[in-house]
Amino acid sequence: MATEREVTIEQFREQLWEAKVGRRIDEVVVHHTWRPSASEYRGIETVRGVRRYHMGVRGWSDNGYHIMIGPDGRVFLCRPLHRAGAHTAGRNAHTIGLALIANFDCDDPETYGGLPAAHQVVAALLKRFDLRPRAIRFHREFAPKTCPGLKLRLPEFRDDVADAVASVDGGRPKIVLLPGSETVDCNARVEEGVTRVDLRALAEALGWSVHDHIDDQGKVYLSR
Ligand SMILES: [Zn+2]
Hints:
224 residues; alpha/beta; Lysozyme-like; 2 domains; 6-stranded mixed β-sheet; 12 strands; binds zinc ion
Protein backbone atom coordinates (compact mmCIF):
# COMPACT_ATOMS: atom_id res chain seq x y z
CA MET A 1 0.00 0.00 0.00
CA ALA A 2 1.39 3.37 -0.95
CA THR A 3 1.95 5.47 2.13
CA GLU A 4 4.45 7.82 3.76
CA ARG A 5 6.12 7.85 7.15
CA GLU A 6 8.08 10.40 9.12
CA VAL A 7 11.42 9.31 10.59
CA THR A 8 14.16 10.96 12.62
CA ILE A 9 17.64 11.12 11.11
CA GLU A 10 18.73 8.37 13.51
CA GLN A 11 15.83 6.13 12.46
CA PHE A 12 16.58 6.90 8.84
CA ARG A 13 20.20 5.76 9.23
CA GLU A 14 19.24 2.57 11.07
CA GLN A 15 16.47 1.60 8.67
CA LEU A 16 18.61 2.43 5.68
CA TRP A 17 21.29 0.06 6.89
CA GLU A 18 18.78 -2.73 7.42
CA ALA A 19 16.83 -2.18 4.19
CA LYS A 20 17.20 -4.76 1.44
CA VAL A 21 17.35 -2.62 -1.67
CA GLY A 22 17.98 -5.30 -4.29
CA ARG A 23 18.82 -2.92 -7.14
CA ARG A 24 22.09 -1.19 -7.88
CA ILE A 25 22.20 2.42 -6.68
CA ASP A 26 24.63 4.67 -8.54
CA GLU A 27 23.32 8.16 -7.84
CA VAL A 28 21.11 10.30 -5.62
CA VAL A 29 19.07 12.83 -7.60
CA VAL A 30 17.98 15.96 -5.73
CA HIS A 31 14.75 17.77 -6.59
CA HIS A 32 12.58 20.56 -5.26
CA THR A 33 8.81 20.27 -5.38
CA TRP A 34 8.51 23.77 -6.92
CA ARG A 35 4.83 23.50 -6.07
CA PRO A 36 4.17 23.37 -3.12
CA SER A 37 6.77 25.94 -2.10
CA ALA A 38 8.20 26.20 1.41
CA SER A 39 5.47 28.60 2.56
CA GLU A 40 2.76 26.20 1.37
CA TYR A 41 4.15 23.32 3.45
CA ARG A 42 1.69 21.70 5.88
CA GLY A 43 3.74 18.84 7.33
CA ILE A 44 2.91 15.29 6.33
CA GLU A 45 -0.32 16.50 4.68
CA THR A 46 1.83 18.10 2.00
CA VAL A 47 3.65 14.82 1.44
CA ARG A 48 0.32 13.00 1.15
CA GLY A 49 -0.83 15.63 -1.31
CA VAL A 50 2.20 15.06 -3.52
CA ARG A 51 1.58 11.29 -3.44
CA ARG A 52 -2.10 11.75 -4.29
CA TYR A 53 -1.13 14.00 -7.19
CA HIS A 54 1.44 11.51 -8.49
CA MET A 55 -1.04 8.64 -8.19
CA GLY A 56 -4.25 10.35 -9.23
CA VAL A 57 -3.06 12.78 -11.90
CA ARG A 58 0.16 11.16 -13.13
CA GLY A 59 -1.19 7.63 -12.73
CA TRP A 60 1.87 6.35 -10.86
CA SER A 61 1.76 3.52 -8.30
CA ASP A 62 3.10 5.69 -5.47
CA ASN A 63 4.85 8.96 -4.74
CA GLY A 64 7.50 9.41 -7.47
CA TYR A 65 10.12 10.36 -4.83
CA HIS A 66 11.69 8.00 -2.31
CA ILE A 67 12.31 10.67 0.30
CA MET A 68 10.84 14.11 0.94
CA ILE A 69 12.18 16.75 3.33
CA GLY A 70 10.23 19.67 4.74
CA PRO A 71 11.42 23.23 5.39
CA ASP A 72 11.30 22.32 9.10
CA GLY A 73 13.84 19.51 8.57
CA ARG A 74 11.31 16.69 8.95
CA VAL A 75 12.20 13.60 6.89
CA PHE A 76 9.48 11.56 5.18
CA LEU A 77 9.96 8.11 3.67
CA CYS A 78 7.81 7.79 0.56
CA ARG A 79 8.30 5.18 -2.18
CA PRO A 80 10.32 2.21 -0.80
CA LEU A 81 13.97 2.28 -1.88
CA HIS A 82 13.86 -1.19 -3.40
CA ARG A 83 11.48 0.11 -6.07
CA ALA A 84 12.71 2.39 -8.83
CA GLY A 85 11.31 5.90 -8.47
CA ALA A 86 9.47 8.12 -10.94
CA HIS A 87 11.39 11.36 -10.64
CA THR A 88 14.00 11.64 -13.43
CA ALA A 89 13.03 10.44 -16.90
CA GLY A 90 15.49 7.86 -18.18
CA ARG A 91 17.40 7.78 -14.91
CA ASN A 92 15.15 6.03 -12.40
CA ALA A 93 16.48 2.46 -12.49
CA HIS A 94 19.65 3.02 -10.45
CA THR A 95 18.94 6.25 -8.56
CA ILE A 96 17.24 7.43 -5.41
CA GLY A 97 15.03 10.51 -5.74
CA LEU A 98 14.95 13.01 -2.90
CA ALA A 99 12.71 16.08 -2.97
CA LEU A 100 13.00 19.19 -0.86
CA ILE A 101 9.62 20.77 -0.27
CA ALA A 102 10.51 24.21 -1.61
CA ASN A 103 10.72 26.33 -4.69
CA PHE A 104 14.38 27.29 -4.86
CA ASP A 105 13.78 29.43 -7.92
CA CYS A 106 12.40 31.83 -5.27
CA ASP A 107 12.89 30.39 -1.77
CA ASP A 108 16.22 31.34 -0.20
CA PRO A 109 18.36 28.27 0.68
CA GLU A 110 20.06 30.34 3.40
CA THR A 111 16.86 30.55 5.40
CA TYR A 112 15.49 27.12 4.49
CA GLY A 113 15.54 24.88 7.56
CA GLY A 114 15.46 21.59 5.66
CA LEU A 115 18.94 21.69 4.15
CA PRO A 116 20.90 20.35 7.14
CA ALA A 117 18.55 17.35 7.25
CA ALA A 118 18.94 16.89 3.50
CA HIS A 119 22.73 16.89 3.85
CA GLN A 120 22.50 14.26 6.62
CA VAL A 121 20.10 12.09 4.63
CA VAL A 122 22.22 12.22 1.47
CA ALA A 123 25.36 11.58 3.53
CA ALA A 124 23.74 8.43 4.92
CA LEU A 125 22.77 7.34 1.40
CA LEU A 126 26.34 7.84 0.15
CA LYS A 127 27.68 5.72 2.98
CA ARG A 128 25.08 3.00 2.59
CA PHE A 129 25.69 2.61 -1.14
CA ASP A 130 29.42 3.38 -0.99
CA LEU A 131 29.16 6.42 -3.26
CA ARG A 132 31.29 9.54 -3.58
CA PRO A 133 29.86 13.09 -3.48
CA ARG A 134 30.01 13.26 -7.29
CA ALA A 135 27.17 10.69 -7.24
CA ILE A 136 24.92 13.52 -6.03
CA ARG A 137 23.11 14.87 -9.07
CA PHE A 138 20.61 17.65 -9.61
CA HIS A 139 17.53 16.93 -11.72
CA ARG A 140 18.37 19.82 -14.05
CA GLU A 141 21.43 17.91 -15.30
CA PHE A 142 19.03 15.51 -16.99
CA ALA A 143 16.06 17.66 -17.95
CA PRO A 144 15.40 21.13 -19.39
CA LYS A 145 14.21 22.56 -16.09
CA THR A 146 15.75 24.42 -13.15
CA CYS A 147 15.05 21.67 -10.57
CA PRO A 148 16.02 21.78 -7.70
CA GLY A 149 15.91 25.52 -8.24
CA LEU A 150 18.23 28.25 -9.51
CA LYS A 151 19.30 29.29 -6.02
CA LEU A 152 20.69 25.87 -5.13
CA ARG A 153 24.25 25.20 -6.34
CA LEU A 154 25.48 21.64 -6.87
CA PRO A 155 29.17 22.13 -5.86
CA GLU A 156 28.12 23.68 -2.52
CA PHE A 157 25.52 20.98 -1.94
CA ARG A 158 28.14 18.27 -2.54
CA ASP A 159 30.60 19.99 -0.18
CA ASP A 160 27.96 20.25 2.54
CA VAL A 161 27.13 16.55 2.18
CA ALA A 162 30.84 15.67 2.31
CA ASP A 163 31.07 17.63 5.59
CA ALA A 164 28.09 15.67 6.93
CA VAL A 165 29.74 12.38 5.92
CA ALA A 166 32.90 13.42 7.78
CA SER A 167 30.97 14.37 10.92
CA VAL A 168 29.18 11.01 10.98
CA ASP A 169 32.48 9.19 10.47
CA GLY A 170 33.76 11.08 13.50
CA GLY A 171 31.16 9.25 15.58
CA ARG A 172 31.52 5.58 16.30
CA PRO A 173 29.28 3.60 13.96
CA LYS A 174 28.41 0.06 14.97
CA ILE A 175 28.98 -3.11 13.06
CA VAL A 176 26.38 -5.87 13.06
CA LEU A 177 27.47 -9.43 13.75
CA LEU A 178 25.37 -12.20 12.24
CA PRO A 179 23.79 -14.48 13.29
CA GLY A 180 21.84 -13.05 16.19
CA SER A 181 22.23 -9.49 14.94
CA GLU A 182 24.36 -8.44 17.89
CA THR A 183 25.79 -4.96 17.32
CA VAL A 184 29.37 -4.06 18.22
CA ASP A 185 30.81 -0.58 18.50
CA CYS A 186 34.08 -0.99 16.61
CA ASN A 187 34.30 2.24 14.62
CA ALA A 188 33.46 0.52 11.33
CA ARG A 189 34.07 2.76 8.33
CA VAL A 190 34.83 2.51 4.66
CA GLU A 191 38.03 4.18 3.49
CA GLU A 192 39.00 4.07 -0.17
CA GLY A 193 36.68 1.13 -0.65
CA VAL A 194 38.23 -0.85 2.25
CA THR A 195 36.13 -1.60 5.33
CA ARG A 196 38.15 -0.94 8.49
CA VAL A 197 37.24 -1.77 12.08
CA ASP A 198 38.92 -1.47 15.46
CA LEU A 199 40.26 -5.00 15.88
CA ARG A 200 40.11 -5.28 19.67
CA ALA A 201 36.44 -4.37 19.97
CA LEU A 202 35.45 -6.77 17.21
CA ALA A 203 37.67 -9.62 18.42
CA GLU A 204 36.43 -9.36 21.99
CA ALA A 205 32.82 -9.41 20.80
CA LEU A 206 33.65 -12.68 19.05
CA GLY A 207 35.12 -14.09 22.26
CA TRP A 208 38.76 -13.63 21.26
CA SER A 209 41.45 -11.54 22.91
CA VAL A 210 44.12 -9.50 21.18
CA HIS A 211 47.74 -9.75 22.35
CA ASP A 212 49.35 -6.36 22.81
CA HIS A 213 52.59 -7.67 21.33
CA ILE A 214 53.13 -7.26 17.59
CA ASP A 215 55.98 -9.45 16.31
CA ASP A 216 58.88 -8.54 14.04
CA GLN A 217 56.86 -9.37 10.94
CA GLY A 218 54.05 -7.06 12.03
CA LYS A 219 51.73 -9.92 12.94
CA VAL A 220 49.03 -9.40 15.54
CA TYR A 221 48.05 -12.46 17.59
CA LEU A 222 44.54 -13.36 18.66
CA SER A 223 43.61 -16.12 21.09
CA ARG A 224 40.49 -17.60 22.61
ZN1 LIG B 1 13.01 17.49 -10.22
